[in-house]
Amino acid sequence: MLDFWATWCGPCQISMPIMDRLQKEFSSDVVLLAINVMEPEETVREYVSRQNLRSKVLLDLEGNVGEEYGSDAIPMQVIIDRHGVVQRVNVGLGPRMEASLREEINRLRTN
Q1: How would you classify the pairing of strands 2-5 and 76-80?
Q2: What class does CATH assign to 2-110?
Q3: Residues known to be catalytic
Q4: Cα separation, 32 vs 26, whole angstroms
Q5: Average pLDDT, whole number, for the chain?
Q6: Please, are residues 7 and 43 in contact by the beta-carbon 8 Å criterion?
Q7: What is the pLDDT of residues 34-78, one digit of tens each?
Q8: What's the pLDDT score for residue 111?
Q9: Which end of the chain is more exposed for a tag (fewer CB within 10 A), N or C?
C-alpha cells in the first residue's frame, strides 16, 4: 500500500495515523510505504518523530513517483496486490476511509 502525503496537508495529518493503524493491524499481509511528496528530509524526519509514526517513509523529492501514480491531490492511497496490480486508489479523506481500506485489504487477503 502506498500513501502519498505531506506534513503541511491537514487531511494527511488525520489519515497518517489511520494508515499506521492499518499497517499494524495487517502487518503480516500489508507493507505500507508512506511517500512524502516534495519536502525536505529534515522536515519529514522531524514530523515523523513528533507524530511517532512507525510506517516506512520514503521521500519523493522531485514528485516523480507521485506523478507516475497520478497523484494530483493528497492524501492518496494506492492498494497494490501481491502481483503488482493496482487494485484501488483512494484520494482525499472521508468518514469511511479507514473502513473502506480495511474492507479492500480483507478482500485481497482472501483472493
Answers
A1: antiparallel
A2: alpha beta
A3: 9, 12
A4: 10
A5: 96
A6: yes
A7: 999 999 999 999 999 999 998 999 999 999 999 999 999 999 999
A8: 82
A9: C
